[in-house]
Design goal:
Layout: E1 3-7, H1 12-22, E2 26-29, H2 47-62, E3 66-75, E4 82-83, H3 96-106, E5 114-125, E6 128-140, E7 156-158, H4 170-176, H5 178-192
Parallel strand pairs: 1-2, 1-3
Antiparallel strand pairs: 3-4, 3-5, 5-6, 6-7
Helix pairs in contact: 4-5
Bound molecules: inosinic acid.
Inosinic acid (IMP) binds next to strand 3 and helix 3.
Length: about 190
């Protein structure tokens, strides 16, 4: 029989990716699938804290084993910003274009352009909490390039590549991305536990 687990998201891209990698032995349910339509608080000041908050919320309120992810872009020349606040860097109600524009503005004239994406996945299984991390090192480009992907993809060039994430196809990005790496660790764990 398939084992059920909730992925605390309604993002169709993330769900499809996870279902594809997890294979036949797991049934991955979304928040919609379990009737959870609330805004889950993300009030921690670390990626670990936010991922755990989301997974615990589902476990405590709905009883399902659950995993949740949180991602940030850390830029060295900006003291690690936007970091845990990556989604709302340009302020509440602003979109990815505004976030990217502000990032390029704040990076103007900076010689050190080193940055990394970091994803943390928190899994609550029974009483246990397990954390999985994925990191990709790279740099912030001088201007946007490419239109695939989402978020800061057009201005992030991974160290392993000559082009930005937004110039890669999904498979090439997933193979080296922060989320791809964290997800691979989660799936490996689930397959053995
Ligand atoms: P989340 O925790 O996955 O919702 O990610 C938080 C924010 O980080 C998003 O709103 C995006 O701005 C950014 N982000 C996360 N993953 C990526 C990515 O793979 N490429 C570009 N930006 C990302």
């Amino acid at each position: 029989m398939k084992r059920e687990i909730v992925f605390a998201t309604n993002n169709p891209h993330k769900l499809q990716e996870l279902r594809q990698i997890a294979g036949d032995s797991w049934s991955i349910l979304s928040l919609n699938d379990i009737g959870c339509h609330e805004d889950i608080p993300e009030t921690a000041d670390t990626l670990e804290g936010n991922a755990e908050l989301k997974a615990r919320f589902v476990k405590e309120k709905y009883g399902y084993d659950c995993f949740a992810d949180d991602t940030g872009l850390m830029v060295d020349a900006l003291g690690g910003a936007p970091g845990v606040y990556s989604a709302r860097y340009a302020g509440p109600g602003h979109d990815s274009l505004a976030n990217m524009a502000l990032l390029l503005e704040n990076m103007r004239g900076k010689a050190d352009r080193a940055a990394r994406f970091r994803t943390v996945i928190a899994l609550i299984q029974g009483d246990g909490l397990h954390l999985f991390e994925g990191v990709v090192e790279g740099e912030i480009t001088l201007e946007p390039a490419g239109c695939a992907g989402f978020g800061y993809d057009p201005v992030f060039k991974p160290a392993e590549s000559t082009v930005t994430f937004a110039e890669m196809d999904a498979d090439a990005k997933n193979a080296i991305s922060h989320r791809g790496r964290a997800t691979a660790k989660l799936i490996d764990y689930l397959k053995n536990n």
